[in-house]
Every structure is written in C-alpha cells, then in structure tokens.
Amino acid sequence: MVNQTILSGENMLLPYVGILLSTGLVFLQKIFTDWNIFLSF
What we know:
Order of helices and strands: H
Radius of gyration: 18 Å
Number of domains: 1
Helix content: over 70%
Structural class: mainly alpha
Number of helices: 1
C-alpha cells in the first residue's frame, strides 16, 4: 500500500518536472542566443 501511494505521488510530480525541464531548456537557449548576439556585435 505504501509503495502504491509513493508511485501515485511520483506520477503526479512527473508533469511538473517535465514543465520545469522544458522551461529550463528554453531559458538556457534564450541566454545562449543573447550571448551570441552580444558577442557578434
């Protein structure tokens, strides 16, 4: 019973982790593009 509750909690957290990872990747890409524009000038 305890393992099932832990698994359900992890399944509930998975979407939030995916959203955090995707937003982090977009944020890193934005920083790199800004740096490339800054260095190109």
